[in-house]
Design a protein that fits this description.
The protein is mainly alpha-helical. It has one domain.
Length: about 70
């Protein structure tokens, strides 16, 4: 498959992934964070704020393959 076609396929998948991921994390945070302490908030946002990077990087890596 040509890189151009992979980019055409991968870009909407990446955008859709980020939208779905952010909505799921918002729902999870609304359900769990009100009962947690301050350091737990920090850990939650650190974990889930960086959690999208690895899957998104895999999609970008696939799009850039020769």
């Amino acid at each position: 498959m040509q890189p151009r076609v992979r980019k055409l396929i991968g870009t909407p998948i990446l955008v859709l992934f980020i939208i779905v991921y952010s909505l799921l994390v918002m729902k999870l945070s609304a359900a769990t964070l009100p009962s947690m302490g301050g350091w737990s908030h920090f850990g939650f946002f650190l974990l889930f704020g960086l959690g999208w990077v690895i899957p998104a990087g895999a999609i970008v890596w696939w799009m850039q393959k020769p």
